[in-house]
Amino acid sequence: MAILDTRLLPLIEALADSGADWLAFEILEGVRLGRVPEETHAELESTRSAVRLGKRQMRLSEQRAVPPPAPVPILGDEQIQWAAEYLEKRISDAVLMLQETLDQLERIISGAQTLDGAPSGSAAKEGVTLVLQTDYERLSVRRRDAAGGKAALSKLGEAIKAWVASVRNGGQSE
Known about the structure:
The protein has one domain. Helices cover about 60% and strands about 5% of the residues. It contains six helices and two strands; from the N terminus they run αααααββα. A two-stranded antiparallel ribbon has the order 1-2. A hairpin with a 4-residue loop joins strand 1 (about 130-135) and strand 2 (about 140). Helix 2 packs across helix 4 (about 75-115) and helix 4 (about 75-115) packs antiparallel against helix 6 (about 145-170).
């Protein structure tokens, strides 16, 4: 288990302050766990093939028990780089999944309108609005919001790279 590099604290605080505490927790957990060994590409492909062909593979309980390799700690500058890459990938994935969700909902709605012969009104032209409701807040997201998020991803990537360079050079990040 690695000790958290204190240079990550401003990033963690910024995430928490911006309402992305879930992402801050994921980064903390990732650093705590280290690099956990995963199945090799060959193992994954073997499993995919067996499932496609309906073959029975040897069960884990039938195999000789071998402890998994120990996680490799993430230390120093590597923590900074790992956190930056994780942050960029996780936010990119979230924005792209949101955009895909809106696309799928619009396909469902347009298919339903075609089936019942309903005229396409202003609601159809506006597109889908995804509304998320919690006990504390209500958030509405439309296609233009997702598109704006996707457009901002390149700026995010540049800002993260600048932060990494600043932290590695001993400067303070903003």
